[in-house]
Amino acid sequence: MKLLKEGYKTIEKIAGPLLFVSKVARGGIGEIVKIESNFGEDYGQILQIVDDLCVIQVFGETMGLAPNNTVVWLERDVVKIPLGIALQGRMLNGRAMPIDGEGPISCIEKWAPIQGNAINPWRRKSPHEFIETGISTIDLMNTLVKGQKLPIFTGSGLPADKLAAQIVKYARTPATSADSSPFMVVFAALGITQREASYFREAFRESGSIYRGVFFFNLAGDPSIERILTPRMALTVAEYFAFEKGYDVLVVLTDMLHYCEALREISSAREEIPGRRGFPSYMYSDLASIYERAGCISGIKGSITQIPIVTMPDDDLTHPVPDLTGYITEGQIVMDRELHGKGIYPPIDVLSSLSRLMNKGIGEGSTVPEHRALSDQLYAAYGHFKDLVRLKTIIGEEGLTPTEMSYLSFGEKFESEFVNQGERRRSLDETLEHAWNCLLTLPKDELHRLPVNLIDEVMLKRGTKA
């Protein structure tokens, strides 16, 4: 057993959050180091090794550090997080330290590396089963499925924080049997302001959702390296509860743009050749290492579902961060500035949104048999409404037929009643009721995507004339 620790004073330079230390023997990528200086102690992580030169990310501030007053000690370990059932209901910072005033984490079962283990492709099970978010535009038209990665794309000034808090408060898996898995949320906020952090804390405490989740808060003033570590800590906690304790875990990550900007900052300090818009060329694989930790495993009861929230600078869907996120994940929910301007909440643009795995979690035995047909009919009718709005600006309202006018009535009702549900939760039954309220403003022969017997049945139930 080696009793002596290895310390190095051979610091070549300090650049931003990075230390460049030479003549390091047998250092390992990802290894933790302790940094001692005249200002106290801090920790860092070996990021890159070139021959005997180690690039170290410092977890704290590098201001005041100098080659002549700093010693780097190798810890011969990697970043780990404490795991235990007592984590549920706790609020932690970006280093997994409690910030809720409830004292240290008790009943620690084990410490686990935050990098996690890749899911064996042979054992990866196809996402399945419906997750109810309580939001009509998602539950009916862009259904979230257990084990899926479904990002929300938003713009600056749009109420993404409110939507994230609403999903955390209301999301659940419908109990289909006595042996259904318990449900919980792991929430990670990256690079947020103190005001945003206060909003989330109060929202979760008031709703009681604090007791069914684990919450990480990385603030904008925290070191960039914490922003890199926080989502991995959150996912390690999610894997523990999902694959060891049998929970269905929903992971909400906001905002992944801040994560990628921290990645760009560190890449710039390393003097790497930049890629698109200055982001590192390896950003795709880095994001994949986070997003691909969602899924279901054959023979294991739990699951991990992800909702990453991504801000699009200038509302640009082709920006590298939302663009690469879209390649890795299975669809997107898009927030719309025009709907927000009309006072509609949540301002979700259903025509730009898509859930590629929707069919795996809907239909008979999961939701309702007519789920797909009803969703398709809403899409078709709302798309036609949008076309008619553009036509109306050219030829005027008097140039439209009665049927076309009914589509305008449908579209206005769809936006004001179906999309605009406010902050309250809607059950799937309520969502279906609102959908039919909108569709029955159209003539029966315009509902081409719905079975005639289903339309007749609904009309009979409502006492509506066929």
TrEMBL record:
Residues of the ATPase F1/V1/A1 complex alpha/beta subunit nucleotide-binding domain:
134-355
Which NCBIfam families does UniProt cross-reference here?
A: PRK04196.1
Its annotated function is as follows: Produces ATP from ADP in the presence of a proton gradient across the membrane. The V-type beta chain is a regulatory subunit.
The record places domain ATPase F1/V1/A1 complex alpha/beta subunit N-terminal at 12-72
The record's annotation in Gene3D superfamilies points to: 3.40.50.12240
Which key words tag this protein in UniProt? ATP synthesis, Hydrogen ion transport, Ion transport, Transport
Q: What InterPro entries does the record tag this protein with?
A: ATP-synt_VA_C (IPR055190), ATPase_F1/V1/A1_a/bsu_N (IPR004100), ATPase_F1/V1/A1_a/bsu_nucl-bd (IPR000194), P-loop_NTPase (IPR027417), V-ATPase_su_B/beta (IPR022879)
Say yes or no: keyword Transport present: yes
Q: Looking at the record's lineage, which domain of life comes first?
A: Bacteria
The identity of this protein, by name, is V-type ATP synthase beta chain
Q: Which ranges carry the ATP synthase A/B type C-terminal domain? A: 360-457
Keyword Transport annotated: yes
Gene name of the record: atpB
Organism encoding this protein: Acetomicrobium thermoterrenum DSM 13490
UniProt similarity note: Belongs to the ATPase alpha/beta chains family.
Q: Name one GO molecular function term.
A: ATP binding
- Name the Gene Ontology biological process terms: proton motive force-driven plasma membrane ATP synthesis
